[in-house]
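G., the chain you wanted modeled:
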Amino acid sequence: MMNVSLPGGEVDMLEVSKIAELRRQLAAALRLAVRFGLHEGVCNHFSVRVPGDEELYLINPMGVHWSEITASRLLLVDGAGVVLEGSGVVEPTAFFIHTEGHKARPDAVCILHTHMPYATALTCVEGGRLRFVHQNALRYYGRIAYDDGYNGLAMDAEEGERIAEGASGGEDIIFLAHHGVVVHGRSVAEAFHDLYYLERAAQVQVLAASTGLPLREISPNVAAQTAKQFADLAEFESSYHFAALERVLAAETPDYRD
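Predicted structure as tokens:
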């Protein structure tokens, strides 16, 4: 296999192709987050760990609105935060949350952090938890960690590590008190699929609670059984969901792939 030089070392052409694919997928995820109202200003951040022995990440640059993101505008950075490809800088909290998150979870190819409104609302109420009252919520049964110790902005590696430790049990979702959520995925498709349905589940819960009527919990046995069904389908379901969303995106705003 032919090798080419990239910042951080040599990679073969197969890896170059994979990086290009990850760029396209991450750009799509950022554009789709705008479409579904999961973004916030020019804040929040998505990252992907680049395959290979080097510690390399793709991440959105600071100050660029997600509706402006294209594959080529994503930054390639190393484990020290040095920008190796792309124009711009990494937002400090993005660097610490994502690099420490990827180190803590080597299986997490993609990490998404947002302040999406309904899920974040659950982090702002006393005892806020995702309740298992709707089918979509069962996707996350046994997969959620809660960080109830808000410490301000994640401006150093220590705070990034503390947040990452919240998922030390292998949980894919972390609810950050007074802050937002972090989603870990084995692919961009799986991470975005989880992000999308997490917000939908939180939205249904908030709407149901707004009626003033008691929430009706699904029994633990049924919840666990359904969660396994979702887990068995996760790779397949997320791949066709994300592919469908990319087709819509490509038809309407194909420039995200540039």
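The longest strand covers residues 180-185.

Shout if anything looks off.
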